[in-house]
Design a protein that fits this description.
Layout (H helix, E strand, L loop, with lengths): L4 E3 L1 H30 L8 H26 E3 L15 E6 L5 E7 L10 E3 L3 H6 L7 E6 L2 E10 L1
Parallel strand pairs: 1-2, 4-5
Antiparallel strand pairs: 3-4, 3-7, 6-7
Helix pairs in contact: 1-2
Length: 156
């Protein structure tokens, strides 16, 4: 059932740092918060204590999720990917044939996708349509609003 998560070396390091911070500083702060709430008296009617315990549960859930993600992580070596066709980590310049606008996307794993940074998932409709194609190809992306046609102008 293990499905790998492909990450860049940079993203892997970010996740490892976040996990270390949550396990050290995050847990320490949570313990202090619970101790303070406990000092307020009767735990059966202590809303601060209940809130702190809930927050602790969320912190532990986040830690567990990051550990599970790292256990499935595989680092992508960009140098071994094809240079002339769209693959994960490719930066692709496309022209939307419906409105003539040009977009530049980097295709990444779903865990790294962030449209505000121009990073789209290889599993997104546009990402799926672009994968495996070359410069000059016209692709159709099936999106919720219908079909969008893109021409691939550049693959980096």
């Amino acid at each position: 059932m293990t499905n790998f998560v492909y990450l860049t070396r940079e993203r892997l390091i970010e996740i490892e740092k976040e996990l270390k911070d949550l396990k050290t500083r995050g847990r320490k702060e949570m313990a202090a918060r619970i101790a303070e709430a406990r000092s307020y008296g009767d735990l059966s009617e202590n809303a601060e204590y209940d809130a702190a315990k809930d927050a602790q549960g969320l912190l532990e859930l986040k830690i567990s999720q990051l550990e599970e993600l790292l256990a499935r992580a595989r680092v992508i070596d960009k140098s071994k990917l094809p240079k002339d066709e769209v693959a994960i980590l490719s930066t692709v310049t496309v022209k939307h044939l419906g409105n003539g606008k040009t977009f530049k996307y980097t295709l990444v794993s779903p865990e790294e996708a962030d449209l505000t940074q121009g990073k789209i998932s290889v599993t997104s409709p546009v990402g799926k349509a672009l994968m495996g194609n070359k410069k000059g190809s016209v692709v159709n992306a099936q999106v919720p609003a219908g079909v969008i046609q893109f021409e691939i102008l550049e693959v980096e």
